[in-house]
Amino acid sequence: MCGIVAYVGEKDAYSLILKGLKRLEYRGYDSSGIALLEDGELNVYKKRGKVADLESQHAGKALKSTIGIGHTRWATHGEPNDVNAHPHYSNNRKLAIIHNGIIENYASIKQNLIKKGHVFQSETDTEVLIHFIEDIQHEAGNSLEDAVKLALREVVGAYAIVVMSVDHPGQLIAARKGSPLVIGIGENEFFFASDATPIIEYTKDVVYLDDYEVALVRDGKLTIQNLDNTETIPYIQTLEMELETIEKGGYDHFMIKEIFEQPRSIADSMRGRLNASEGHLQLGGLSGYMDDLVKAERIVIVGCGTSWHAGLVAEYLFEELARVNVEVEYASEFRYRNPVITEKDVVIAISQSGETADTLAAIELAKSKGATIFGICNVVGSSIARASHAGAYTHAGPEIGVASTKAFTAQVTVLTLMAIAVAKKKGTISDETYRHLLYEMENIPALVEKVFENATKIKEIAYIYKDSNNCLYLGRGFNYPVALEGALKLKEISYIHAEGYPAAEMKHGPIALIDEDMPVVFLATKDSSYEKIVSNIQEVKARKGRVIAIVTEGDTLIPSMVDFVIEVPEALEILTPLLSVIPLQLLSYYVAVMRGRNVDQPRNLAKSVTVE
Ligand code: F6R
Q1: Which residues pair with 32 in a beta bridge?
Q2: Mutate to test the pocket of ligand 1, among 353, 607, 608 (most ligand atoms within 8 A of CB)
């Protein structure tokens, strides 16, 4: 969703911010803008469309400044157009603001300000906030930083903001509540951004702002205070991210780069945690809380989209290995359902970004009812990671493509390790099974590598099906969540309507859709449901459906029944999702490319869904 980049220092702010905004494009947006202090004037440049549109509008002009704020906007209040794009001026045009999040009580504040003579240019909640700050600043002669704090005490909602003022050259004020903001500290320079990607090439020293904190950079110094004016010492962390992880590195798209990165990202998720020959398995972030998991009467897993699918895989894993009751919930439903949660429950929140608003709200709710919260996040220092009691990072590296690929397999990897560790501690698996599982896990990256040998074949299949209007994905057991994930991948990047179902549910409705124009992707690996899946395939073939089957290497039965097969190596049933999802990611990618879609930034989608 919206992205923030701001800079104060000695470099050329315009080009630096523009580059930063391009780094944030993956988050999804529909307009962009930059404000600069140029020769004592506060100038705002903004444009609907891509950052390149903003850039071309000002091509050839010398925009010179060493301080500025920039934004990519994903529309919430008011349509995506030039006027609603950020930055926004205050009433006297002496202040400018960029803002991620939503100010929920903006309408009443706006009404009061209109009565006082404020004139608004846009339909946004953000413009109301900067007018409000100006109003408070002038009402009682408050300093700008006090006015920002006083305004933020009044607003309801979520925000990450950066404010600049024509009267204070060299000064930036930033604040956050519920929307991430990271501050990069360089030599005589400071960077502000909604995530670390625009900062990484300049400095690795960063401070993650906490909720209700206000950061002030003035005279080359950073100070941080709470809204109640208590000062906090900035906690400087070192970014572990490398620049090449946020660049395409010769690939056409981030998505295909990230798909092919999976042998490494899965290995990274296990690194330092698993050593099969020594029988070692430990997730450092969980130590101290392992007993809660072992004693849990129930595990409730919350997440959205692909992360929810990883949660479904975890349900099968924890029930199978650790014999514990698991429920998997859409965070968005859970948070508004008055769910029955007690201190005996353990909640696992899964989120790549660690910023998904619904998932964050779900864990706050569960926390308020006394549950222990485990966060499984990819982004280090993210809000969900920080709001959790304990957790494990997935260490997949930055995922830039909007469609989640390597984050999913990393989530499943970490959840598998968790389930094995809990099962071992509970004694629900034998030592022999435990050892065997560790060896099999260690071998997964090599098996994923083998799936890639089928990439050309998958491309050929994609060519045949690229013009389809619909597609059905069916699987059973551990492969049922994979069917859902395959369907989601196809629809989100190719815009082909796709549905995932448990294969046995087909008879209860979806079978009516089957005809010679309906491609059906079956997850049909050799597992405990194999015979049943074979019957389901026959039912589809009997109705002339066109079947693509993901099968285990060496299978001879299913290839004789279906139109196309894609083989994956043999693996333990509980580990199958880590392999069977790969061909589905590739299939979606190739279909989307052949249909000319914007694979990395599909329409209407955002990488990090920070609003409800
Ligand atoms: C699909 C996808 C989304 C996300 C969902 C949750 O490819 O990326 O469905 O999985 O928006 O996001 P996180 O995991 O960041 O909470």
Answers
A1: 47, 72
A2: 353
Do 170 and 312 have their domain in common? no
Judge whether 180 lies within some domain: yes
Residue 51 and residue 21 in contact, taking contact as beta carbons nearer than 8 Å: yes
Ligand 1: list residues with CB < 6 Å.
304-307, 351-353, 356, 359, 403-404, 488, 492, 608-609
Residue 317: pLDDT band (50, 70, 90) is very high
Q: Are residues 25 and 160 in the same domain?
A: yes
Task: Point out the domain boundary residue: 409, 442, 475.
Answer: 442
Total count of domains within the chain? 3
Whether residues 296 and 422 fall in one domain: yes
Question: Which domain CATH number covers 17?
Answer: 3.60.20.10
CA of 87 to the centre of ligand 1 (A): 27
Residues 284 and 408 in one domain: yes
Residue among 273, 269, 175, 159 nearest 215 (CA) = 175
Residue 128 has pLDDT above 90, yes or no: yes
Confidence (pLDDT) at 118? 97
Residue of the CA atom closest to atom 10 of ligand 1: 306
Q: Which of 427, 442, 457 is the last residue before a domain boundary?
A: 442
Q: What is the reported pLDDT for 610?
A: 78
What's the farthest any 2 CA atoms get from each other in the chain?
A: 82
Give nearest CA residue, ligand 1 atom 8. Answer: 404
Q: Verify that 273 and 363 share a domain, yes or no.
A: yes
Convert the pLDDT of each residue in 516-526 to its tens digit: 999 999 999 99
304 CA distance to ligand 1 middle (Å)? 6
Q: Which domain holds residue 69?
A: 3-244
On whether residue 606 sits in a domain, the answer given is: no
Tokens matching residue 84? 């609603």
Distance 161 CA to ligand 1 centre (A): 24
| Atom number in ligand 1 closest to CA 606 | 11
Neighbours of 165 (CB within 10 A): 19
- The 3-state secondary structure of 265-317 reads HHHHHHCCCEEHHHCEECCHHHCCCHHHHHHCCEEEEEECHHHHHHHHHHHHH
Ligand 1 pocket test: which of 74, 302, 304 has the largest number of ligand atoms within 8 Å of its C-beta? 304
In the reported structure, the alpha carbon of residue 295 is separated from the centroid of ligand 1 by a whole-number distance in angstroms of 30
What is the pLDDT at residue 553? Answer: 97
pLDDT confidence of residue 516: 92
Contact 437, 382 (CB under 8 A): no
Atom of ligand 1 nearest to the CA of 306: 10
Ligand 1, from 255, 335, 356, 482: best to mutate by most atoms within 8 Å of Cβ? 356
Q: Is the peptide bond before 87 cis (omega within 30 degrees of 0)?
A: yes
Give yes or no: residues 508 and 391 share one domain.
Answer: no
Q: Same domain for 203 and 298? A: no
pLDDT, averaged across the chain: 95
Contacts of residue 609, defined as CB under 8 A and 6 or more positions apart, other chains included, come to 1, 304, 353, 355, 356, 357, 358
3-state secondary structure of 555: coil
Task: Please identify, by atom number, the ligand 1 atom nearest to the C-alpha of residue 379.
Answer: 15
Q: What is the CATH number of the domain that holds 472?
A: 3.40.50.10490
Are 196 and 281 part of one and the same domain?
Answer: no
Q: What residues are labeled active site?
A: 2, 607
